[in-house]
Design goal:
single chain, 307 residues, hpI Integrase, Chain A, DNA polymerase, domain 1, three-stranded antiparallel beta sheet
Length: 307
């Protein structure tokens, strides 16, 4: 995608700021860059440029995004990125106003997370333990850690050797924005970690070392998100579950919802999940309300009576 050199330089400086000041990940940085360059292409097609955008240009772009089928959550993110980008231009004295600031975004209904039952997780764990190959032992370790901690998939595959605090049976996680948090490990997760450590060398070349706990020959140097997703779907098929509903993110949801089912409080769950805002954690309370309504409508003796 073509972009004039001076505009490209401005965007690159914005991305560098995100990384340096906000600890933006590679994935976040790439998404922001794509959002800005897509808007720049829209501006070019309309005979305009990026830095000179007006409020009407931003509104037109969001209408265009709606017309081509982008969902409300994506459009809200597009608007948020533009607001941050033009705020950066203000801070650099490149322009005096923020044309995206007073543009209203779409009102998106918050989607509830996909859920799997405790029995489903047990089926996955049982099937993972069946394989005593190096790959099977690694997958069992990944699954145990995921369900024991609720880590984000990027946190899980990118775990480093020094993340493990064996004396306290916890993991030290560097989450979004470089924020640290300690997450406790279950006894079964620790057992799976110990078993994996014995065969971890299988995933390294002779005399090779790696700072990553799950090393691989990928460009990143560790097991990729995509590969983990593939492995979980293969495991789901073997366990007799629908692979379409099994993913690393669904395991994170299972961790949260199952803890709430068993009486965990929201504040503790917020800390373990690494949510900066408790409103993000509160979505799981809606899941529990829906589940309770279903239980009542299905089993309460008065639920099906007409008055």
């Amino acid at each position: 995608m073509y972009m004039e050199n001076n505009q490209l330089k401005i965007v690159e400086q914005f991305i560098e700021m995100l990384i340096a000041e906000r600890g933006a990940s590679a994935n976040t940085s790439a998404a922001y860059f794509n959002d800005i360059t897509n808007f720049e292409a829209f501006q070019n097609n309309a005979g305009q440029n990026l830095a000179g955008a007006t409020t009407d240009h931003v509104r037109s772009y969001l209408r265009h995004r709606t017309e081509i089928g982008a969902n409300s959550r994506t459009i809200s993110r597009n608007l948020s990125v533009l607001r941050q980008f033009f705020k950066f231009l203000q801070s650099e004295n490149i322009r005096s106003d923020n044309p995206a600031l007073n543009v209203d975004g779409p009102k998106a209904a918050r989607s509830l997370p996909k859920l799997i039952s405790e029995n489903d997780v047990e089926a996955l764990l049982a099937r993972a333990k069946d394989s005593q190959t190096a790959e099977g032992i690694r997958l069992n370790c990944l699954l145990e850690i995921a369900y024991a901690t609720g880590l984000r998939v990027t946190e899980l595959v990118g775990l480093r050797n020094e993340s493990f605090r064996y004396e306290s049976e916890t993991l030290l996680i560097y989450g979004k924005g470089g924020k640290e948090r300690l997450v406790p490990l279950t006894p079964s997760a620790i057992k799976a970690i110990v078993a994996y450590e014995e065969i971890r060398g299988h995933f390294l070349k002779e005399h090779e070392t790696s700072k990553f706990f799950f090393p691989s020959r990928s460009k990143q140097g560790h097991l990729t998100r995509r590969r983990l997703g593939q492995l979980l779907k293969e495991l789901a098929r073997k366990a007799g579950l629908d692979p379409a509903i099994i993913s690393p993110h669904v395991l994170r949801h299972a961790f949260a919802s199952h803890l709430l089912n068993r009486g965990a409080d929201l504040r503790s769950l917020q800390k373990m999940l690494g949510h900066s805002d408790i409103s993000t954690t509160q979505i799981y309370t809606h899941v529990q309300k829906d589940r309770l309504h279903n239980v009542i409508s299905s089993h309460h003796p008065m639920a099906k009576k007409n008055f």
